[in-house]
Structure formats: C-alpha cells, structure tokens
Design a protein that fits this description.
Chain lengths: ~350, ~260
C-alpha cells in the first residue's frame, strides 16, 4: 500500500511539473516551440489510443485516420459560427441542423469523440469477423471510404474545398490536458482485468476463449475507446492547423502512427509516448532537409518528402537492430526506477 | 440420480470427406476419472475440441448438466464449468505466470470496466481477491516462486503445470486434460497422477484425460475409452482394456503382421 501511495504522489508531482513547464513555455516560449509542443501532445494522444488496439490487442488496424477525420470534421463543424459556415459552403449549402449549431470547443471535442465511437461501433461487426491481414485490409478500406466520403459529401464536409479559418482553440492546456487524460485512462484499462484479457487475446485467441473470454466484446471495447480518443485528437488537430481538407487524413497519417508505435515498442504506452515525441519533434526539426542546400560545391535542391525518407530509414534501422522497438512491451514505472537506485547503492 | 452430468451423444465430425470421429458416445458421472486413449490421429483431440466448442460436430449432441451445449462458443462452455488444457501448450507467453492464471478469473468479474477505469474500491477489492486466489493455485502446482516470470521462460514441465493451474482458475466441474504427462520423466508423471487424483478428491472435479503414457492412464483412470480411426473400439475398466483383443491389435498390430 505504501508503494502505491508513493507512486500516486510521484505521478501527481510529475503531472504538476509537466504543467509548470508548459506554463513557462506558454509565457516565455516562441510560437515555434509552442507549435511543436502542441503537435507532440496531439500525437501522444493519437499514438497511445492507437497502441491500445495494435499493441495491446494485437490487431493490425490500419484505419485510425477514419476516426481522426470524423473527429476533426465533427469538431470543426460544431465550433464554426453559422455566419462562417454560410461563407465557406459556396458550392452547396450545409445541411440543417449543422448550419445553425455552434458549440464551445470543449463540447465539440466530446461530440467529436462520440461520433467517432459511434462510427467505430457500426464498422466493428465486419471488422472483427476477420483477423490478421484480412482485418488490416478491411480497416484500410474503411479509412479510404471515409476519405472519399469527405470529398463527395459536399453539403456536409464542403468537399475538396475543406473547412478553412477555424479558430486556433487548441492551446497547450487543451492538448496536454487531453494527452494526460488519455494516458491515465488507457493505462488504467491496460493494467486492469480487461487489459489482461485483451493481452491474452493478443497472445493466443484460442486459449483466451478456452479461459472464458469473449474476444469480440473485448476487442470492441478497445476499439471504441481507441476511436473516442482518436476522434478527440482529430478535433484538436483541426483547431491546431485551422484548415482541414480530405487530403490531410490519408493513409500516410495512419502510416506515421504505425511508425510511432513500432519504433516506440508495440504494446507499450511509454513507447508510444516516446515515439510520438520523437516523431512530432523530428517532423519540425528536420524541416531543413527539404529546403535547398549548398554543401561545398554541391547544390541540392529542396526535395519535398525528404523527411519521410529519413523516417523510413529510422524505421528500417529499428526493425533490423531493435525489433521490439525502444521499449519493447515494457513500461516506465517508479518501481523500476527505485529498484535501479537501490541496486546502484549496493 | 435423474440429472445428466455429462453425456456426449453420437458425435460425428467430418472434415470434407474425412471422418475424424464417428458416432462417439460417452457418459461421465460426477467424480469419475475417465481416460481417452488411442493411436496418433485417432481423433482424441477432435473429441476435446467438440466438447469445448472449438469445433461444432457435424452431427450429435452434447448434454452438460441437462443442457444442450452443442453449438455454444468455447467461452460460454468454459463459463458453464468445462475447462481444458492444450496438447501443444498454449500459454500467454509474454504475460507473467501470475497474469496467466488471473486471466481465467476475468469472466466471473462483477465490476464493470468503468469501475476499473475510475479505480473504484469495488474493483480493487476484487482484483486483490483474484490475485490472492491465483497465488494459492500457483502454490498448489508449485509455481508460486515464479509468479513474476514470463510464462514462456518456464521449462516444459512447468508450462504444463501452469496450463492446469490456469484451467483450474476458471472454476470448472469437468476438466479435460490433453496429454498432461507428455514430456515428463517417470517421477514427474507419478507426481502428476497423485496431483490429479488429489484434485478430484479435494476440489470435487471430474476428469477426462487424453494420454499416451499407459502406466499413467492405467494407474489413474477408473474407466478408459479407446478410439481408433475415429471409432470407439472399446470401453471399460483398465484391466479389461489391457486384455481387450481389439485394443492389442490396434496398438501392436496383428500377430501375422508382427512376425515378419
């Protein structure tokens, strides 16, 4: 019990420290630093919720971009004022009742999560009828379906024009508040009896069934929770970049998330956090490789997409030399830190 | 006793043109230890898979405590009190030894996942109780000192024991063991037989056991069913089975074949 109390105190202190640092950045940091921090938080939320399905349940879901898209559009449509919507939807007017509703940002995020969850619920039955590669293809398909629908449903999503001029509501408090909340909830789930059952399904579904576990119910639970937080993160992302269009949420977004959790360590929330941080930071820090360069006599023109090449190389190196990623399936824990300190003393 | 405890009636399992099990019937009374033997490929594991719901028989019925469980999914059957181990060990390799056992309590959990996410007292109490009971089971099979190790790191014999502990944790009334003594040395096999008999006596379990080790089967089981090419060729007490001409033929071949 004393150990649990110690961990609780340390966790609380860590969160307080995190928010003190964020407060300092909020006050004294540059726009560039704040943007990177916001990106990191959104990707942490995305990666941690994606890892719940892929890492903990061991299901290769390739459709998180569907949930993110739905969350982004839902939230964006709810925060825009009726006047803004009227100006934006020039080809076809927005359908009722979306054209008259306006909600505060927080409420729009909750609705974004719920709509993504409802969508996940509807596709869960076909998705979990199959496993392995087949499941990957089905989810990939749904991801594409949503993207195509965003292009086609002119009177809801404004089609290829997208939604522009969203208010930049996403600040450090929203993005990191939700990232921390996601980590706490997902971790609690993973460490509970439900998480154990999900891992059992990952390890051996036949054996899990023989131990009285209904795989569908548990995969569904993970899928819905994952969809909820992906949807919320989609809403955050929309109000961070302030312009959304169907091209933003392609399979590449899914690929990036997959890269994050594989490099971090499939099945480790700590790994997902580390992976997301490295990715979001690297994505900005490596921007220079895409601009024209002069190395001695050699002139290299700017090649867009060069960052992805570097990320791909990192991914390959990790897969070859550290197949389980940075963390493997391990998690950060205070117990581990203290046992290290103790063994150092001896 | 009017109640049917366990009764498999005329089970047939066909895979395309292959009849894996033909017209298999077996009635088991409470507290019996029944052996299921036969040469490789006789359909013993197929019988297990039908009983536990991994396969739906082509025809026939399985009655468990007066209830037809033929078409139920495996997890429902486990919840009704039939547990099993696997011939080719199927542990949750990356989970700890303790977690492997604790998984089996999940289907009887009373708290909802909201309780778990919100860290409710009700859930934490349940979790603690499950941990204690799982440790007791591990103690029973002598694995408590390895509770935190990953299951895949255990040697073969201990993995078999963990499989039994995990199956016991589902709280079964009928336990199906698929080759529990495979890969064990004679001393371990002897200990296992004592352990299984003790399970029956202390927990009131009924057991159906597939095993190739004849000494083990003959010493432990009170009744034996012999399966050859999907057909039941003999059923009876161990001493009768040992002298049954059909059984000897199935295992050793006929005399004229054996001579040259």
């Amino acid at each position: 019990m004393i150990r649990e109390q110690r961990n609780l105190i340390l966790n609380t202190l860590t969160i307080v420290l995190l928010f003190v640092i964020l407060w300092l950045f909020d006050r004294y940091g540059t726009d560039y630093q704040i943007r990177i921090l916001n990106n990191i938080a959104v990707f942490i939320t995305l990666a941690v919720s994606y890892n719940l399905i892929n890492g903990i349940c061991g299901v290769l879901n390739l459709g998180p971009n569907a949930f993110i898209t739905i969350g982004a559009y839902t939230s964006a449509l709810l925060t825009m004022s009726p006047a803004e919507k009227k100006i934006s939807f020039i080809i076809e007017p927005l359908i009722w009742p979306l054209n008259v509703i306006q909600l505060p940002f927080g409420a729009s995020l909750v609705v974004a999560g719920i709509v993504a969850t409802v969508f996940a619920f509807f596709i869960s039955y076909p998705v979990f009828r199959v496993r392995g590669d087949y499941l990957a293809i089905v989810t990939l398909g749904f991801g594409e379906v949503v993207r195509v629908l965003c292009n086609a449903l002119q009177n809801i999503t404004n089609g290829p024009l997208g939604l522009k001029g969203l208010k930049p509501y996403t600040n450090l408090w929203w993005s990191w508040g939700i990232a921390v909340l996601t980590i706490i909830i997902v971790q609690r789930l993973i460490n509970s009896s439900w998480g154990r059952a999900m891992k059992a399904i990952r390890e051996d579904e036949t054996a899990a069934k023989a131990m009285g576990i209904d795989p569908f119910r548990h995969l569904l639970l993970a899928f819905l929770i994952s969809a909820f937080f992906s949807g919320v993160a989609g809403g955050l992302l929309a109000h961070l970049i302030t312009t959304i269009s169907p091209t933003l949420f392609t399979f590449f977004l899914t690929f990036n998330l997959l890269m994050i959790i594989v490099v971090g360590g499939l099945g480790s929330t700590t790994g997902a956090v580390i992976g997301a941080t490295l990715f979001a930071w690297g994505n900005e820090a490596l921007r220079f490789v895409e601009s024209p360069m002069q190395i001695g006599p050699l002139h290299i023109p700017g090649i867009p997409g060069m960052r992805m090449v570097i990320f791909s190389i990192i991914l390959m190196v990790v897969i070859i030399f550290a197949r389980k990623g940075i963390m493997g399936q391990r998690e950060f824990s205070w117990d581990w830190i203290f046992s290290k300190i103790r063994s150092q003393r001896i | 006793m009017a109640q049917t405890f366990f009764h498999a009636q005329h089970l047939t399992m066909q895979f395309g043109g292959l009849v894996a099990v033909h017209n298999f019937s077996l009635k088991i009374d409470p507290l019996e230890i029944v052996g299921l033997i036969g040469p490789n490929g006789a359909g013993k594991t197929t019988v297990f898979n039908m009983i536990t719901g991994n396969l739906t028989p082509t025809s026939g019925k399985i009655i468990w405590q007066d209830r037809d469980i033929t078409a139920l999914p495996p997890y429902e059957i486990t919840r009704l009190g039939i547990a099993r181990t696997f011939q080719n060990i199927r542990l949750f390799g990356n989970l700890s030894v303790l977690d492997n056992v604790m998984v089996s309590y999940h289907h009887r959990l009373e708290s909802s996942f909201w309780h778990a996410i919100l860290g409710a007292k009700k859930y934490r109490r349940e979790e603690n109780r499950i941990r204690e009971e799982s440790m007791k089971l591990l103690q029973m099979v002598g694995l408590d000192h390895l509770a935190k190790e990953p299951a895949s790191s255990l040697p073969y014999g201990q993995q078999r024991k963990l499989e039994i502990a995990r199956a016991l944790a589902t709280n079964p009334k009928l336990l199906l063991l698929d080759e529990p003594a495979a890969g064990m040395n004679p001393q371990e096999t002897l200990d296992l037989a004592r352990f299984v008999r003790n399970l029956r006596d202390s927990l009131g379990l009924t057991l159906l056991i597939i095993e190739h080790d004849m000494k083990f089967v003959m010493g432990l089981c009170e009744r034996i069913v012999v399966l050859v090419y999907g057909h039941t060729i003999a059923e009876g007490k161990p001493e009768d089975i040992q002298h049954h001409p059909e059984v000897i033929k199935a295992y050793l071949g006929e005399k004229k074949h054996a001579r040259h």
